[in-house]
Amino acid sequence: MIKWSFSGLKDFINCPRQYHEVKVLRNFTKKPTEQMLYGTEVHKALEDYVRDGTPLAKNYERFKPMLDVLVELPGTHYAEHKMALTADKTPCDFDAEDYWVRGIADLLIVDEADALIIDYKTGSARYPDLRQMKLMALMTFIHFPEVQDIRAGLAFVMSGNLVSEDYKRDMIPSMWDVFAPTLERLAAAYESGAWSPNPTPLCGWCPVDTCEFREKRRRF
Ligand code: SF4
Questions:
Q1: Helix or strand or coil: residue 86?
Q2: Which residue in 110, 113, 124, 214 has a CA-CA distance of 20 to 30 Å to 29?
Q3: 111-147 confidence digits (pLDDT tens)
Q4: What separation, in Å, do the N-terminal and C-terminal C-alpha atoms of the chain show?
Q5: What is the pTM assigned to this prediction?
Q6: Which ligand 1 atom sits nearest the alpha carbon of residue 14?
Q7: Which residues does ligand 1 sit against, CB inside 6 Å?
Q8: 82 CA distance to ligand 1 centroid (A)?
Q9: What is the distance between the alpha carbons of residues 102 and 80, in angstroms, rounded to a whole number?
Q10: Phi and psi (nearest 5°) for 60?
């Protein structure tokens, strides 16, 4: 049985061979970029502020107006809320051995039949990818059966923009359809053992130093 997360699925789409070497075999580790380290630091500061009211460091105070709007919304607030499902799409513990898919909502607010899911982004808002929010919404519908309507959005904290989509409970089947083709490809790769490379100009930065494409790109 495959196990997946949204970021893992994206890695598989980018390069099945790298996914296999890094995520499945764990032969190599991806080094976090400076941008990723900054993102992690900001996430932690925002999480602490929203959950415990921990004051923001001076350089993060500009995010306060956006966060205060979220903090004041009615409902039960869950910061860094972990959710997981088994293969038959029932809720399970995040660390359950038989989990099938899992993810962490940066902020989830449940107010009776309505929910809001927020993912903080420190990067550019130019190409927002809302599929991640679809997956979080699907898990929220299953973990919180009382929820009927969800707004889920990417909060671009640098610009203060929120890019969001609305989902209704009767959309659940079509929301799963978004992931089905890639999950079929992932299952087929596990079954056949064929993890094809997907060379791009970024291969020079790939941690898989046994891949011939990494060396080729380094020569240019
Ligand atoms: S070097 Fe390129 S093709 Fe090879 S595994 Fe890495 S990303 Fe994939």
A1: coil
A2: 124
A3: 999 999 999 998 877 777 889 999 999 999 999 999 9
A4: 40
A5: 0.91
A6: 7
A7: 15, 17-18, 197-199, 203, 206, 208, 211, 213-214
A8: 31
A9: 13
A10: -110, 0
Q: Rounded to an integer, what distance in angstroms lies between the CA atom of residue 193 and that of residue 189?
A: 5
Residue showing tokens 């630091």: 41
User: What's the 145 CA to ligand 1 centre distance in angstroms?
Assistant: 42
Closest-lying ligand 1 atom to the alpha carbon of residue 197: 3
- Which amino acid type is present at position 46? L
- Banded model confidence at residue 219, pLDDT cuts 50, 70, 90: low
Q: Looking at ligand 1, which atom is closest to the CA of residue 214?
A: 1
pLDDT in tens, 90-104: 999 999 999 999 999
For residues 211 and 28, the answer to whether their CB atoms sit within 8 Å is no
Atom 2, ligand 1: which residue's CA is nearest? Answer: 203
Q: Dihedral sign, CA of 70, 71, 73, 74?
A: positive
Query: Looking at the predicted structure, is the pLDDT value of residue 192 above 80?
Result: yes
Vertex 78: Cα angle to 92 and 146 (nearest 5): 65
What pLDDT sits at residue 120? 93
d(CA 186, ligand 1 centre) in Å = 17
Phi, psi (rounded to 5 degrees) for 31: -80, 130
CATH fold label, 6-31+75-218: Lambda Exonuclease; Chain A (3.90.320)
Instruction: Determine what percent of the chain is predicted with pLDDT higher than 70.
Output: 97
Domain positions in the chain are: 6-31+75-218
Q: State the closest ligand 1 atom to the C-alpha of 15, by its place in the atom list counted from 1.
A: 8
